[in-house]
Design a protein that fits this description.
Layout lengths: L5 H4 L6 E4 L5 E4 L4 H7 L9 H10 L7 E5 L5 H10 L4 E6 L2 H14 L6 E5 L11 E6 L8 H7 E11 L2 H13 L3 E7 L6 E3 L4 E3 L9 E7 L7 H29 L1
Parallel strand pairs: 3-4, 3-6, 4-5, 6-7
Antiparallel strand pairs: 1-2, 7-11, 8-11, 9-10
């Protein structure tokens, strides 16, 4: 393909067309966040662009939000969250593997030099959430159901709990726990598929390969605790009274039969 000298690239406008010694054309652009996530060094599985976008939207990550993230990994999700909350927001990240923190911070710093609104803690989110008044909790951990009870205390009213999981059995366990909690409603699980298309002068068709399942995104909203309604209480009392009457009737039958 030929050679392009670094000196020929430095100082050029973004989007410049550059040619190798063999005449091959290249375009010079700064990487998008999606480009960087795909190419950055990583020792863990990362969340790629198709799911990062959905997490930001379904998690409703807004400028100025305070977000607790658990599962730093290589820093892909952290970068997306930092850009979404902006300079007036904050991202608090928990990671249990200290050996990952330095690499992740380097990855994040290469893309986002200002990390003043990022806090990284070596902590286990299953056991230790000290923070309160959190707008969002975003989890990339294998057993997020252990966090549900603590999330109910840490989130602001109306706050969003979001979990990213690879298997549907994990999703089912999480839903069971969320449904048992009196503090969460509006549970929803989605997955995202991307099918690129090839558009040329002579044909328009889907490409032969697509990015299908990578993970499930589950969200829930914190609300006021469930209260037993008057109707439910009346039905419960009626059922108890019915059982009592039936029991007494059976006792009378037995006595008469004995006579």
């Amino acid at each position: 393909m030929g050679i392009i000298s670094h000196d020929d690239i430095i100082g050029q406008d973004i989007g410049t067309r550059l040619y190798t010694t063999n005449g091959q054309m290249f375009l010079a652009f700064l990487p998008t966040l999606g480009d960087y996530v795909e190419e950055m060094p990583h020792s863990t599985q990362v969340i790629y662009a198709k799911d990062l976008g959905a997490i930001l939207m379904y998690g409703d990550i807004f400028p100025g939000a305070t977000v607790l993230e658990s599962g730093l990994g290589s820093g892909a999700l952290t970068m997306a969250l930092l850009r979404a909350v902006g300079d007036n927001g904050k991202v608090i990240t928990f990671e249990i593997r200290p050996e990952l923190v330095g690499k992740a911070r380097a990855n994040i710093g290469n893309m986002l030099p200002n990390l003043s609104n990022l806090e990284i803690h070596i902590k286990d989110v299953y056991h230790d959430i000290d923070q309160t008044n959190l707008d969002r909790i975003i989890l990339d951990v294998p057993e997020p159901w252990h966090v549900v009870q603590k999330a109910a205390i840490a989130l602001v009213p109306g706050g969003i709990f979001l979990s990213y999981l690879p298997t549907i059995l994990q999703v089912h366990q999480l839903h069971e726990t969320l449904m048992e909690s009196p503090h969460f409603e509006l549970m929803e699980t989605i997955e995202v598929f991307i099918r690129p298309w090839s558009v040329t002068h002579r044909s328009v068709r889907p490409v032969h390969r697509m990015v299908a399942h990578t993970g499930f995104i589950t969200t829930a909203r914190k609300c006021t605790p469930k209260q037993t309604s008057t109707v439910e209480e009346s039905d419960s009392e009626a059922n108890l009274q019915s059982k009592k009457t039936t029991s007494e009737g059976l006792g009378n039958i037995d006595a008469e039969s004995a006579i």
